[in-house]
Design a protein that fits this description.
121 residues; mainly alpha; 1 helix; rod-shaped; transmembrane helix
Length: 121
């Protein structure tokens, strides 16, 4: 009879320990899962902040690029205008030289010519 009582007590105590151990194990698993979830949330927040920071940096870089492109375009227009003016001056100079040569060729060189022009030197 004592053996039966001992066996029953062992079963009850053993199953109680097993039940306590399994509950403790489930509690630890839940805590570990919760801690892992917190770590993943923190990692996500860090990545989100990094993405936001990089997005702001990229936006600022694009703004700076646009500003520099505007400056380059203005300088390009100035250069094109100077080239146009230089070309026009070269054309004017060539025209002046052509006119001067024509005048020189059309001037009478004879001393007794009525159309002779006196050159001022």
């Amino acid at each position: 009879m004592i053996e039966i009582v001992s066996l029953i007590l062992n079963l009850l105590l053993g199953s109680g320990l097993i039940l306590f151990y399994s509950q403790h194990k489930r509690k630890q698993a839940a805590e570990a899962s919760s801690a892992e979830l917190d770590v993943r949330r923190n990692e996500f927040d860090i990545h989100r902040q990094s993405v936001e920071f990089l997005s702001r940096q990229l936006s600022e870089a694009y703004t700076e690029i646009d500003r520099m492109q505007d400056i380059i375009n203005d300088k390009r227009l100035q250069i094109l205008d100077m080239l146009r003016r230089t070309n026009q001056l070269e054309i004017d100079l060539l025209n002046q030289e052509t006119i001067r040569k024509k005048l020189k060729m059309s001037t009478c060189r004879r001393a007794d010519c009525a159309e002779r022009e006196v050159e001022n030197e």
